[in-house]
Amino acid sequence: MISKKDKATRRKLPPERRWRHTGLLIDWEIYRDFRNMFNAKLNNFRNKQYSTMVEENKDDPATLFRVINKSLHRKQSSPLPPNKIDKIRENIDSQQSELENDIITPDGNHEALFDEFF
Question: Are residues 69 and 93 in the same domain?
């Protein structure tokens, strides 16, 4: 027989904790119903919220697309791969240093460099 203390504790526990604690089928059904009801209310709230945000920003395309991407759980990504920008910067730096080394010649023969350029 279940004591009064156990009954009181059982009523106070959230449905998921109660189900995990007891492992009973009835507690699983109570938890499942509670979870489904909560998710339905949450989805309804999100739909209303996003509908309101879309309606408010229908004339601002940038904000509208930001709202849509957020509602679809899209992450903003760069059009370039993550390390591509760093590689481009490294190439530019190395090319600049090569040019500086080529332009500054110890013998001062700048005419030959000019002829090579054209």
Answer: no
